[in-house]
Amino acid sequence: MSRASIVVSSLVLSIAIACRTRDGDVEVRAAAPPKAPAQYDLGTPVDSARLKLIDIDVDPTGTTLPAGSGTAAKGLVVFAQNCAKCHGAKGEGIPPNPQLIGRDPREGFPFGRDAKLVRTVGNYWPYSTTLYDYVHRAMPLSVPGSLKPDDVYSVVAWILAENEIIPRDAVMDAKTLPAVKMPAAGRFVVDDRKGKVVR
Ligand code: HEC
Q1: Which residue has the least CA distance to atom 13 on ligand 1?
Q2: pTM above 0.90, yes or no
Q3: What is the 46 CA–ligand 1 centroid distance (Å)?
Q4: What percent of the chain is modeled with pLDDT above 90?
Q5: Which of ligand 1's atoms lies nearest the C-alpha of 131?
Q6: CA dist 80 to 63, 154, 174, Å?
Q7: Is the distance from the beta carbon of residue 88 to the nearest atom of ligand 1 less than 6 Å?
Q8: Is 151 exposed, middle or buried (0-12, 13-18, 19+ CB in 10 A)?
Q9: Integer Cα distance of 54 and 49 in angstroms
């Protein structure tokens, strides 16, 4: 809506309110805006217990991965119970929920030339640790953060094993997961352009 039409429509609204009031109708008043608090508590230190609740990121090095471990066999159960209804029993994806399993095309990295190619954990993600971070942070979509570390490690192991990236019996934990080399590792460059200040 343009600025002019916003001004015009609010003018019409205030006239309508004025008319109704003068005719003896129910008086119509705009609701008062909520009162701002006297103080916003900005600058109050966050206590460590509250900070711990949101400090959950796992970066590519995996140094903040939690204790715990998991295997693909256990992950199959976790996946069936928590993920399959959206991502399909085999991780094939049920649109609009994305496909998680699949390595094609295995040769080259032609994603930049063909927007139709499906990007998956198996063919596109450069870091295994991101899988832990993302699943723990955002999945299952309706109850993110509900899985225990052992369950996250297990479902991550299952997704990696199904993508033929780790052996079926590999145990995933804070040490083994960061050591997993993803097929797309090294396919991305750090964007270190600094740009130029233009005045
Ligand atoms: C209610 C449906 C739903 C459930 C249940 C669910 N997901 Fe998802 N998942 C989604 C949607 C939708 C996306 C895409 C989110 C986006 O792109 O912002 C997604 C994205 C993902 C991705 C990223 C895929 C990619 O390549 O970008 C992974 C990995 C994933 N989910 C794993 C899981 C796991 C593991 C579980 C079970 C613990 C799970 N999901 C449960 C709906 C779901």
Answers
A1: 97
A2: no
A3: 31
A4: 69
A5: 29
A6: 29, 12, 24
A7: no
A8: buried
A9: 9
Which tokens is 30 given? 């705009």
Question: For residue range 29-80, what is the model confidence (pLDDT) as tens digits?
Answer: 677 888 888 888 788 888 899 898 889 999 999 999 999 999 999 999 999 9
Tell me the pLDDT of the chain averaged across its residues. Answer: 87
Cα(134) to ligand 1 centroid in Å equals 9
pLDDT digits (tens, 9 = 90+) for 127-157: 999 999 999 999 999 999 999 999 999 999 9
Burial of 83 (0-12, 13-18, 19+ CB in 10 A): buried
Nearest CA to ligand 1 atom 25: 120
Q: Is the dihedral of CA 38, 43, 48, 54 positive or negative?
A: positive
Mutation test residue for ligand 1: of 79, 82, 83, 127, the one with most atoms within 8 Å of CB: 83
Tell the residue nearest (CA) to atom 37 of ligand 1: 83
Over the stretch 93-108, which tens digit does the pLDDT of each residue have? Answer: 999 999 999 999 999 9
CA–centroid distance, residue 97 to ligand 1 (Å) = 7
Name the residue at shortest CA distance from atom 36 of ligand 1.
83
d(CA 120, CA 101): 6
CA pair distance 18, 2, nearest whole angstrom: 25
pLDDT, position 3? 46
8 Å CB contact between 111 and 170: no
